[in-house]
Amino acid sequence: MTSRNKKARKNLGFYVNNYKFHQPFQILIDGTFAFAALQNKFNIQEQLKKYFQSELKLLTTSCIISETEKLGIFSTSINGTTQIVKQYAIHKCGHEKKPISGSKCLRSMIGKDNSSRYIIATQDRELQDRLRLIPGVPLIYLHGKTPTLESPSEASRKRAEVMQKDLGMTTWQKENIKVLEKQAGIMQEKDKLKKKKKKGGPNPLSCLKKKKKPETILSKNGIKSGKVRKRKIKIAPHIKEALVIELKNKCET
Ligand SMILES: [Zn+2]
């Protein structure tokens, strides 16, 4: 891998990591890029694939085609350019009925945040300047025969920084949530224990009540129980003696 490829991969990696770009990478090619490729005998399909070492999807729009067609009236090489851009898949841009200029069309395709994740291949300096202000728009241009994926613009880098900070916040928040969940878990365990106590509670209580009830009933009925016996034992000896004498007298009589 050449240092040029390494730089391209590094720059592409930035968009993969920060702006969710993925293979096949969509490259929107405008007339100026196709024209430069033609002039420099640069085979866009082959050379770009080599340069990026990734799966690519080369795209254009009907506006770009009609623009190169119009310009084709004046130049044979522009005609060749039309032939080049016509090879690519035409992405719907919404101006099919009323074509607009290629640069305006590309700007509308990018919108505010390049949500479709296009890489823009253009030699148009003015368009490049405008697209550099929008975060997450990779730019590629030809320097002679050499393709160059530009280093991320300041807008792209700043937005990525903010997003990473946001990401940091969410991981921090996630940690916080984990702690809260753990605490909630402990609370739930406590609740479970309380419920268990409550569940186990009524039984001993009812048992106690049941015990208390028979006791009272027993004592009221005078049926012998441990406690009643204990009371008998507590009877003073002289009364016991008197009782025994009484019983003896009854038996004798
Ligand atoms: Zn269009």
Q: How many domain modules? A: 2
Find the CATH superfamily of the largest domain: 5'-nuclease
Might you state the CATH topology name of the largest domain? Rossmann fold
Which structural class fits the helix and strand makeup? alpha/beta
Strand content: 5-15%
Q: What's the helical proportion of residues?
A: 55-70%
Give the neighbour order of strands across the main sheet: 3-2-1-4-5-6
Main CATH class of the largest domain: Alpha Beta
CATH architecture of the largest domain: 3-Layer(aba) Sandwich
Instruction: Say how many strands there are.
Output: 6
What is the oligomeric state here? single chain
Distance between the termini: 132 Å
Radius of gyration: 46 Å
Ions, cofactors and other bound molecules: zinc ion
How many DSSP H or I helices? 11
The major beta sheet can be summarized as:
6 strands, mixed
The run of helices and strands is: HEHHEHHEHEHEEHHHH
Stretches where pLDDT is under 50 for at least 5 consecutive residues are 210-220, 224-228
Form type: rod-shaped
Chain-averaged pLDDT: 82
